[in-house]
TrEMBL record:
Species for this entry: Solibacillus silvestris (strain StLB046)
Gene designation: yqzB
GO-annotated molecular function: DNA-binding transcription factor activity
Ranges of residues in domain CBS: 22-78, 87-151
Residues represented out of the complete protein: 65 to 215 of 215
Protein name as catalogued: FOG: CBS domain
Record's keyword terms, sorted: CBS domain, Repeat, Transcription, Transcription regulation
Record field: transmembrane: none
Length: 151
């Protein structure tokens, strides 16, 4: 019986999970990068989502795998098209902060039907990206709960 927690304790530890303890390192690209280079970057960095920043390093947009695929179907020259043309842009970006509860962030991913969100610091200049929260991070947290609860 030792080490097993009650349902109440389980719920409490779930509510105590924070974004900052499960986030990943963000991968960012400049808004004038070409779509072609962004595709190469997504493969070389091995991520599913790229965050787009301006010259002041403020969050401007998000690029998903399907955003890049969609733009490749057309006849446009991917070497000439900057990513800011095709990205999902502010203010329509779902994001979270370090101190957010992981369960609230997870709910946001599901409700918005997205794979990941930037973790940001809100400044007067705009949103500064500090991390990346993905469905994989949520899955890891789910496993960590099981580990601390002696299943
Ligand atoms: P995919 O498009 O590869 O299935 P997503 O489900 O994450 O990947 O993205 C779906 C759409 O939502 C894309 O157009 C993408 O630009 C957009 N998107 C992804 N993440 C976010 C986010 N954090 N906030 C707003 N829009 C997003």
């Amino acid at each position: 019986y030792a080490g097993k927690k009650t349902t109440a304790a389980f719920t409490e530890s779930m509510l105590n999970l924070k974004v900052k303890d499960f986030q990943s390192i963000p991968v960012v690209v400049p808004d004038d990068m070409t779509v072609y280079d962004a595709i190469i970057h997504m493969f070389s960095e091995d991520v599913g989502t790229l965050f787009v920043i301006d010259k002041d390093e403020i969050l401007q947009g998000v690029l998903s795998r399907k955003d890049l695929l969609r733009s490749s179907i057309g006849t446009q020259d991917l070497n000439k098209m900057p990513v800011h043309i095709i990205m999902t842009r502010m203010p329509n970006i779902a994001y979270c902060v370090n101190s957010d509860s992981l369960i609230v962030a997870a709910k946001k991913l599901i409700e918005r039907e997205i794979d990941s969100m930037p973790v940001v610091e809100e400044t007067e200049r705009g949103l500064v990206i500090t991390g990346r929260l993905t469905k994989t991070n949520i899955t890891r947290a789910f496993i960590s709960l099981a580990e601390t609860h002696d299943l």
